[in-house]
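Translate sequence into structure tokens.
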Amino acid sequence: MADEGTAGPASPLDLQMDKPHTARIYDYFLGGKAHYEADRAAGDQVMEAWPGAPVAARTNRAFMHRAARLLAAEYGMDQFLDIGTGIPTEPNLHQVAQSVNPHARIVYVDNDPIVLAHARALMSSSFEGRTAYLHAGITESDGILRSTEVTRTLDLSRPVVLSVLALLHFVPDELDAYGIVERLVSALPSGSALVLSHGTGDFDPEAMEKVGRIYRSSVTRAQSRSKEEFARFFRGLDLVEPGIEVPHRWRPDETGGPYIGGGHDAVRDSDVALWAGMAFKR
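Result follows.
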């Protein structure tokens, strides 16, 4: 079916190049090119407080690859809703899933204007499958599920993988992060999966507090969560082994993934500062 979906309005995009954005800072950490001076300045501040930031970004990306491959290959999942997509960095989720099952369908969701500008790269589907892009934020959960991009691309009567990676630490408690995830999961049928990763101060509280202050002062709201707080997102769901784990030890392959030189054993938990997990809805 190739691609379909919203690539954005016809009017020129305001990329807000003078303001740092989370997706562009993340792209900077990954070594990408879709970032500007304001993003690099904020990213440099983060790396001064927490030198592991680029390792964390690469580790998170490798976790996404393994999770998508596992879900497609071992569980037969062929529908994915990825919220907080970020700037396209190959291989993207649809490329991983469709390499296992060419019929897989993926909807990407992000509200950063730079991601919208690159949305066509996210919709290069296999002929048999389909991808779409929706310009929206996770706090618009009801609108996401009712959107034509979702309803035309995914069959919500069949299991769906809900993927929200390295995003919820930008959704503090006052924005009802737990309620948002619960509403999204409750709208999906039995057999659906939830895949999450989330920043934490469990390994280096001082560094993460500094990073949080940097984001809150110049980028966006931010709130790290402990392992116990992260576990609340999976309440009522069946966690897949090994349960909640740092992403580089969550079912690692021999190399730790394409972004981690030296393998997962060479990565320190304090450099990654993330928890990750996958669970299924009964």
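Note: The first strand starts at residue 79 and ends at 83.
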